[in-house]
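Known limitations

Structure tokens in this collection are predictions and should be treated as such. Users comparing against experimental data should check residue numbering before alignment. To illustrate the layout, the record for ABC transporter permease is reproduced below. The input appears on top and the generated tokens appear beneath it.
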Amino acid sequence: MTQSLTAPAPPAGALRRLLRRKLALFGLAIIALVVGGAIFAPWIAPFAPDEQLFEGLTLFGEPMPPGGDFLMGTDLLGRDLFTRMLYGAQTSLLIGVVANGVALLIGTFVGVLAGFLRGWVGAVLMRFTDLMMAFPALLLAICLAAIFQPSLWIVAMVIALVNWVQTARVVYTETTSLSEREFIAAERTLGASRTRILFKHILPHLVPTLIVWGTLGISVTVLLEATLSFLGVGVQPPTPSWGNIIFENQTYFQAAPWLVFIPGAAILLLALAFNLVGDALRDVLDPTQRGND
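Generated tokens:
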């Protein structure tokens, strides 16, 4: 049986199968909640993110606990934690999407080029990828962030520069496998150009893989941004991010534990949500899993 010369259309019931998965729905609900809070932060937040409130500290100069006018309490400077969490979500999501998008572009470019051209070009690109993978991502990110002046966009680019290698390796494997398929050989026999094969057949077949890795990658970038900010080499105050909220308030861990637990729980929940959705997308878009839902 001959194989189709064009990329298979996405299954019509993919969204329906995704929404049948309870864990995926839970992940989507968490993502929607965080995204909604980030978008509508200027209208939801009761205070400005950097506003130091006179009533935000106790008579002893300690943060106010959750309750009353302060839903999540206040931080060590008397700022409303709920407000800072909303604006911190903007930072975490922006860095997560931008950094992961750039990493996906770099990884796809390197992986497709190496897998499609092969030869010495592919060998050089993949050896460079292996070299990058040999460095611990967190250590490399800390070094790069320390060299450059930390800012929101610099942190996003640093994370992208250490996160593209996994995508490149996966895309390289997929591209190599696709290049050996019968329908690609048939296209070559019919005299199709490399450009036509690449853009009409190779890249469309990579879309499901890129969707899955793009979703899973956001959780990695969110965690890495939070780690860098916690270590003091990420997003710098007064710009709020969930990581630097923990960094700023870690000295009050025993006296005001909510200042660490609330942003920490938010980071873990958001990362878990993207992982759950990514895993569900992988199963839904995998042709071998159809019929098992």
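For this record: The chain has eleven helices and no strands. Residues 1-9 have pLDDT under 50 and may be disordered. Please report discrepancies through the issue tracker.
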